[in-house]
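Researcher: Please predict.
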Amino acid sequence: MFRRALVPLRSSSLPRPSSFNYLTVRHASLNSAIERGLRSSRPGDRTGRYPRNRERRVVPEEEPTSEGFDEEEFIRSGLTPSMMRSSQRLPDQVSSENLKTRRIKRRRAGRHHPSDKEPQRVKSHVMPPTKIPYSTAASEFIYGTNAVEAALRCSRRQQYVLYVYQGQDEDLGPAKSTLRKLALSKGIKVKMAFAEWEDVLNEMSQDRPHNGVVLEVSPLPQLPVTGFRAVPSIEDTHFRVDMGVQTREELAVNGSDNRIPILSQHRQRYPVTLLLDGIVDTGNLGAIVRSAYFLGIDAIVFAGRNSAPLAPVAIKASAGAAENMTILTVRDEVAFIKQSKANGWRFYAADAPGPGSTLLDPLAPADGSSGPNPSHFQAPSVIMMGSEASGLAPHIKSHADSILSIPGARLSSTLGVNSDPARVDSLNVSVAAALLMEIFLRVPVAVSEAPSKRGR
């Protein structure tokens, strides 16, 4: 019986399908529960399998509103209630956009907006160069508002850089702004100078007043000549010169045109030129050039090497007139005078009045009815002016056709300067030159009616 009892047990070792499935599922659920309990008991897993999910911001859903369609609001704004709700933003988005806008405004506020009064941002500290910047070895610096403007407008020489100084808390000013625009229109480089650059500009102008503008240029054209050619008729508009020898560099600066225009604006006349010898004061030289240009002298001849050069200081004293004046140079004054006299030119030496001088009225008629015939002025003429101290050099004065003098109203013809207790025997050379040039050119005087007085 015992063995029979064992057989059924062996035959029944395979459980029935229904009981097998039940035990398997139960066993799996029990193991899962045990594992979950173990995981929850560990300190590192208390936040759950996905800890960051708990940090996510939970935005509550908007509850649907029961308000209906507002016709007046739709007509006013064109928005439906749903569009108005969608246009509402979260506070953090609004604050981020405000921050971005503030940053953009801050960057724009830091930018410089160019204007005529401040084309560039004025700097309080600038490291200037240790040496004066030269574009070429032959460059020179002219300064002053009038001289720089004349150089820019006349364009008789090459121009490299215009330096314009602007101080801290200072507007550029209309004069500097005009010069800057004029230079830019001609394709000239403009350098705005600030702060410590003022010392560099002072060195460029040799510590003379420069008005905040300095222009780097090539030398002024000065054509070397050996003589004047004949002028056949008073109706001629030009006269020609015999040119001297030039180097390649001088030819590039001075050119090779030997025709000199005659400025016969008010009346037809023969050419009148001015020869300067021994003028050492740059102020007097600039004043003579200014008067000669204004009155209409056709050319100025620099004789020898005893005169002051036509340097930037003299150009500034001429108020820019030298930039458009015909300048000639001679090396051998005596040969120049002889050759020109052979071609019909007359030379007049300016000197103090001496005994036996004849007083001529340049406005007298040619028939001599009211004085000597002023035939001296009916030919191409050269007025020669000497130094401030000793006058013309003897070797030049001896070749003159006549001596020109301006008698003082307080000087007698017999006693001379001794008749004047103040002992004023002459004029400044620039003033005397202006008076003599006016006599030769017969510049008319403009007369107009005086303005009527108001309020009386």
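Model: The two ends are 164 Å apart (CA to CA).
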